[in-house]
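Quick one:
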Amino acid sequence: MFKAIRRWLANNQCLFRRFTECSRVAMALANRFAHQCGANTIMPPHVLYGLLDLNHGMCKSALAELAVNLEEMKEHLLPGGCVSIST
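Output:
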């Protein structure tokens, strides 16, 4: 998994050069999740999932401080791991 993330980051370096390392990894995770769902683009729910999938980061800390159940939030991203995106 980490090789794929590093490869994706290397291929998209110019797009995310202003991002922190943590943000770049979250975007790589969001991209992986979007592709697993068959999506051609990264949507906000994919980014949220990427942020929740990080082992560290401000997103998890902030949501935990607000007493948000992170596992429950992930479950709202539909069974099977794919998100429902309504337009």
